[in-house]
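Here's what a typical entry looks like (starch synthase):
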Amino acid sequence: MQSWRLSAAASGRPRPPPCEKDCPRPGDGQVRPGKAQLNRGARSQHGAQRRVGRSRGLVRAGEAQGQEAAGASEELRRDEDESESRVGELERENAMLRELVVQHLQDMAVEDREQFLAAHEALVSQGKDFLMELPSLSKSSPPPPPPEAAPEPPQEETTNIATPAQDEGTSYSMDGAAASVSVHDDEITFKFNAVPGQQPSLRTSRLRAGMFSGGSLGRRVSPYVLSATPIQRTVSGQESSSAGQGNGEEEEYEGKGKEEEEKEEGKDAEAAPTATPSNVDAGADNKQAEGPAYGGGPSSLQLAAQREVDKHNGSVLASTRSHWLYFTVPEVPVAGADVVVYFNKNVSEPLRYSHNVQLRLAFNEWELEAGSSLSDMTPTTIPHDDGSDWWSCQFTTPTEAYEMNFVFGDGVGTYDNNCGDNFMCQVAGGMSQMEWLDGAPARAAAAEAVRKAAEEAAVAEAEKQRQADLARQDLERAQWRIGEVMAKVQGLQAGAVSRCETGRGTGSRTLWLTKPEPLVRGSPGRLLYNSRAGALSSIVFPEGQCPTLSIGCNGWNNPQDILMTRATDVVVRPDEEWWEATFDVPLEAVEFTFVVKYYDIFDNNNGADHKLLVPVSGGFKAWEAHTTELLRQQEFANRIEQERIHNLREAKRQEIRQKGRDKARAVARRQIKHVMFTQPSVVKAGEEVTVYYSPNDTPLNGCQDIYLLGGWNRWTHRKNYGPLKMMAPKEGNHWRASVTPPRDAYMMDFVFANVSGGDGIYDNRGGLDYHLPIEGSVATEPPLNIVHISVEMAPIAKVGGLADVVTSLGRAVKEQGHLVEIILPRYDFFLQSPMLNQMQYETEFDWGGTHIYVSTQIVEGLRVFFIEPMNGFFSIPTVYGRIDDGQRFNFFCKAAMEFLLQTGRQPDILHCHDWSTASVARSYWEDYHYFGLWKPRVVFTIHNLNYGEIQIGEAAHYAQRFTTVSPSYAFEVGGHPAIAPNVGKFMGIRNGIDTELWDPENDQFLPRGYDADSVVEGKKAAREALSQRLGLAGWRDAPMIGVVSRLTAQKGIHLIKHVAWRTLDRGGIFVLLGSAPDPKIQAEFNALGGQLSGENASFYFAYDEPLSHLVYAACDIIVVPSMFEPCGLSQMIAMRYGAIPCVRKTGGLHDTVFDVDYDKERAAWDVEGSSDWQRDGIEATNGYSFEGTDPGALDSALQRVIDAYYMDKGFFHGLQKRVMLQDWSWNRPALDYIELYYSAMKS
């Protein structure tokens, strides 16, 4: 057998790396481990590298065979001298072995020899990457002269290198040839043997720095010099000597028998803290071709690691590590092999006094889990003489691992997580980091396939269960229906007949009969009635008049009135007058009760009513069983038909909403096209896309260089791109750069800068960054989890617009694929709510000096949690109005977060609203973030700045982002003292309306539904209905002008009065729906109503929800003359119903209403994303507006809209159709809020 001894000589032995300081911060022991899953910063590679307290001293890593620190310096100097003297000898040995191998290769076949040489040259090339010089076999050459001894590296360059450990041989097998490696101090020996019938083979995996020392060769100043020499080895019982001279010490070692080697292995296992895997650095590429991950049996690294785990002595290893926080056996874990983690609890500040220790574990930067992510650690038998307290656990490292990530915890929320950076150690023998990253798309595709399969299976199982439940309900309803009948069937049929005769003998006449006779259940039946034979005999029915049949089944169940018609298929005698009516005969019918009437004259069988028999044949029991099955089938068929109709309506609704969402995204893209666009416009995974960027209207205007810096998947993808220097435009304004999205990218993220990194000017879209969705990705975007903490929610706890926003925004974001939940107080008035009759128990806990119950229910499609403290804070009939509102709501805010903490929930966003829940922001960061509720970020929305200025300012400071309900209102209040200090985090996002609640096509409060194409007819019908209800002259061709508003100073009450007078002055019809909380204001409007009310004006001083729908549908014009308006809903609801808004330019009114005469350009931009309305032929204006606060300013808009009605009906009706087609739903605001949520998560 031939052997190579590759000896590594340097000008000094590596020294242990310096320790890192343990820098705890307030609450560090409480931080949850996942924080650092996105923190790729500095991480501790060995728990040994920690300083704990001032008296602990330096913790050393990488010590070999338990060497004592006292002799390290003397041994280091001795090794340096030996290295200098052996450089020449090693070079001569290299040349000698090369000659021997070349001679041996001459006996090989040409093809085999070329393959062998190519494999070896690859190994030589790989060695150079690590500053190692390996002997070349390509040609024979004389030994080179000994090189000069390398100078001693500077102290600071070598102190970061760990001392190399020793190891017995590690075996590899590959393609039928055997090879082995031995590491002893600074020498590494390769040995190979030709198996009979096969040629020698050479292992060609990369040589890593860790194979020679515990440190990194990249830090060395002097290169290693490697040599090779033949070594004797016994093969197949025969002593084989090699040509050339080898080191006698090595020859002695290699000549040992098996028993002697095993004895020495056992001795080494007792003394040495590390074995071969401990000295293998898991650097850039740590693949082991023979390992299980790549086919074949266990690799030699895995076998060596397992031997070390099986034979190590924990007490011996811990004896020199009393101040270490942790260490592993082997020191460098091996992929696919067991590893033991030792943890010194006494060194851990957070866990020193904990009774339990758990290891939370994952691999490859927390992306790879193997089995359970939690491992319970157990106390060891290692003595506590030095004050240590060692715990341990053992597990198997995944074969794909390249690094191990972990933290220690106590199982109840306290963690030692390396000051938030988590612990990490590298893993040998598995994938390299690049291989892991390159495999991400395949893993994502596989995970997505598994997810979809699981989702489809869950949906199928849920549907199966749903159908089973519905089938059971069908049967229960059928049994209930027949049971009701069977309980009183004999009484029902008593006195019932199939036909009725009056008189006796020859004077008898038929009063009524049925066709068929008897009636058939499940089919229509006819009742024929002779009005000349009964109580109606004296009545002569005028032409067009008829009697009415009032009939009910089984004792007047489901009664109905049916207008009768003259019978045509009956032979009529002179003294007869026959009428007929058709009705359905239910399956469970046993009799019908009826009377016949004509106005106030009744034929009711002298007060006993007529009873029509539906006979039961075959006995009641058989009939009951048969009818039950028929009823079950009927229930099933009815349900299927109802579901079909519902599904059709739902599909249409989803189609409309999807079109709205698609248009909102398209408008958003068009609005940034002058700054940035892509070719192709739709980005696809795996296909190149070119980004075009114009800096003219951005912070980068005038910069000489522009760079594109980006990532994927909301910056969470492990791969990124850039900085890419963009190509300057030869013509036009757009710079460009191209990039190809990975197959597992679903979102493209980027910013622009004038530098390639570091300080410079950046265009990051106001902190939101640029994001483009990617089609065709094998991965899907994980949903956000948003929790709204609010004291209002429509419709169950509505006081103002805040309630509408919480519900509508939540639903809109949920429809985008995210998880939205709401936390509310459980008010006493909820007990009377018909919508809250399915509450379920969720949990309970003690907090804040009281016991708290939490219940839950789905409301408006959203999961709602109700906080119910036993201290009576919310045992009240109203939301607001108590003197302790502030105290109650602060308690609720903390109770809501306590609920999240105690139930282990970790939402992404906490969204709080107005002063009532503003304290969430501060309380979260001061009381919860560092104590277990570590993940959320806070978003705060201001709905009304008139209340709680202090609370609002505090929330603005602590929130990561805060908003108000329209961009214009945000501009108007940006200088407010509560906002100005944090205005950089502030933005306005307009509200939307719930287009399902306000839907003229399916509005139950309207006489008929209508859409944009039938707006004229629909509004005419609504106008007639409103006029009839309010006593107005709806027949006149005059504009109907309405105001739907609270009567407060904010709403412009002096202008509302002016609208009433001006409408009547122009011959219009005025309608006011609203009331004033101020008695003085109410009295003024009472007087105005008394003066103006009549057929041309109506004042309805109350808020009536159904009536408001009718007012919006009936009115041609809706006026909103507010002095200030954060957003406003009236103008958007008006447009939804085809009423033209006339508004004052303020807040949200300015953002949603575009004057027909003056705002064509702004309307085209905001509504359609067009920068040139004339070029694009876009007309998007939708109303009339004014700026002043006096009646004259109002007239400038009101007179114009009235003129449009009178002078150009075609234009006016076209304008009504246009405003109905505009989308003022939550589609666009929801997209803006989602971007805001992601922006907050980065803060």
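The longest strand covers residues 850-859.

More examples are in the samples folder.
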